[in-house]
Write a structure and sequence with these properties.
Binding site for 2-oxoglutarate: 91, 93, 103, 184, 196, 200, 202
Largest sheet: 6 strands, mixed
Region (Disordered): 1-22, 132-161
Domain Fe2OG dioxygenase: 84-205
Bound molecules: 2-oxoglutaric acid, fe (ii) ion
GO molecular function: broad specificity oxidative DNA demethylase activity; cytosine C-5 DNA demethylase activity; ferrous iron binding
Strand content: 25-35%
Shape: globular
Number of domains: 1
Number of strands: 13
Organism: Ficus carica (Common fig)
CATH class: Mainly Beta
CATH architecture: Sandwich
CATH topology: Jelly Rolls
Length: 205
């Protein structure tokens, strides 16, 4: 059976000073190409605008090519009443070296406060969320900076960062201003020795 997953490679960014909008691409030292450090596959309903991220425009497969995905979509719609997803980005992490760097899925075509439903299968992986620079993480931290800067710096390491373990069969939902105000990532994990498939259902408005 042929795989619809793509290991995405594209030529090195012509302007090396320009950082990709979403930090999900990485520079491969040997081949000097920008690559996505996991395999991806994009599915979308017909007639929607093209998805472009980090200068990459994935081919949109149709739902009919993957009948099981339609079943999962239906189950997600049932679990999240009122949701109506029309596109899906799949990620395959072949092992602990595959990852997604800090980014937000804040592309305009998803609207200002998108709901994104993330379903995971296979190997457990950690998922991190942290506030974008300049966004206050809660009312407490916004207090007039009573604390000396040196102290604040010390505890700022992972303060305000939230970690979740996304387990086989789990449904994780991001909504509201999560994409506007927060970054998320799935870091490399030496101990994650098996494949993980992640499905992120989205609505292009
Ligand atoms: O694999 C995950 O849990 C996250 C994937 C993700 O953030 C994305 O596809 O934008
Ligand atoms: Fe994401």
């Amino acid at each position: 059976m042929s795989s619809k997953f793509q290991a995405v490679c594209q030529p090195t960014n012509p302007n090396p000073n320009e950082t990709p909008k979403r930090q999900i691409l990485d520079l491969d030292d040997e081949s000097q190409v920008l690559y996505v450090p996991r395999d991806t596959c994009y599915v979308a309903s017909p007639g929607l605008p093209d998805l472009v991220y980090s200068g990459h425009q994935p081919h949109a497969h149709s739902w009919d090519e993957f009948p099981p995905l339609k079943d999962i979509l239906e189950a997600v719609h049932k679990a999240l009443p009122g949701s109506c997803f029309n596109s899906l980005l799949l990620n395959r992490y072949k092992g602990g070296n595959d990852y997604v760097g800090w980014h937000s899925d804040d592309e305009k075509l998803y609207g200002s406060a998108p709901e994104i439903a993330s379903v995971s299968f296979g190997c457990d992986r950690d998922f991190f969320l942290k506030k974008k620079p300049g966004k206050k993480s809660n009312a407490k931290e916004g207090r007039n900076n009573e604390e000396p800067a040196s102290k604040r710096l010390k505890r700022s390491g992972h303060a305000g960062q939230h970690s979740f373990t996304l387990k086989h069969g789990s449904l994780f939902v991001m909504r509201g201003y999560t994409q506007r105000d927060w970054l998320h990532s799935v870091p490399k994990r030496a101990k994650a020795d098996a494949t993980r498939i992640n499905l992120t259902f989205r609505r292009i408005v």
